[in-house]
């Protein structure tokens, strides 16, 4: 019995050609020769030139078309309309009497400087002891304040300027419930 087991184990331990090759015969792959697809000289197919010129020309045409595409964004249209409206009223943006507030999404609000300095933060930027770039340009960009919130803030600054020192009853300043929290956080930041 033991002799059968030993004979069987030595037979199984002996490598055979079938076991070495995985039972598939001789290797069926090409040995690497250092060339792509074993081509020593690259021969182009007939369709390749058409493809290269077609794709390259298409990309070039698209780049030219995008470069000369007219600006049809709402922001640029609104900016042109606002400048036209201000020009009709005789107001120029270069006047130091007005300040431009720019929201994080690129909308610009031009408000009177007297209304703007009702905000402590804006007042420090425009009139503080340190000369900020904003005081020279009369332009303040808020990276974290969206346009709908900045519009509410601008309306509030005019509201505060109008009713400051008033002896009559002051009407309530209304804010939509959906934006109350964000408006309060912005008002806290701007100190208004």
TrEMBL record:
Keywords recorded for this protein, A-Z: Electron transport, Membrane, Mitochondrion, Mitochondrion inner membrane, Nucleus, Respiratory chain, Transit peptide, Transmembrane, Transmembrane helix, Transport
Domain SKP1 component POZ: 98-160
Transmembrane intervals: 50-68
Source domain of life: Eukaryota
The UniProt record lists the keyword Mitochondrion: yes
Major localisation: mitochondrion
Gene Ontology biological-process annotations: ubiquitin-dependent protein catabolic process
Family per record: Belongs to the SKP1 family.
The protein's name in its UniProt record: Elongin-C
């Amino acid at each position: 019995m033991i002799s059968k087991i030993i004979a069987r184990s030595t037979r199984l331990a002996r490598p055979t050609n079938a076991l070495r090759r995985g039972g598939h015969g001789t290797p069926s792959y090409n040995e690497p020769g250092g060339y792509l697809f074993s081509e020593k000289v690259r021969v182009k197919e007939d369709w390749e030139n058409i493809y290269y010129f077609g794709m390259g020309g298409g990309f070039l045409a698209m780049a030219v078309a995008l470069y000369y595409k007219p600006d049809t964004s709402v922001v640029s249209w609104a900016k042109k309309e606002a400048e036209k409206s201000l020009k009709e009223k005789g107001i120029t943006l270069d006047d130091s009497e007005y300040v431009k507030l720019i929201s994080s999404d690129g909308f610009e609000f031009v408000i009177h400087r007297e209304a703007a300095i009702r905000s402590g933060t804006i007042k420090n930027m425009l009139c503080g002891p340190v000369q900020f770039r904003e005081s020279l340009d009369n332009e303040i960009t808020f990276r974290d304040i969206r346009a709908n919130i900045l519009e509410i803030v601008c309306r509030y600054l005019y509201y505060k300027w109008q009713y400051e020192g008033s002896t009559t009853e002051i009407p309530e300043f209304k804010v939509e419930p959906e934006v109350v929290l964000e408006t309060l956080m912005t008002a806290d930041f701007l100190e208004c």
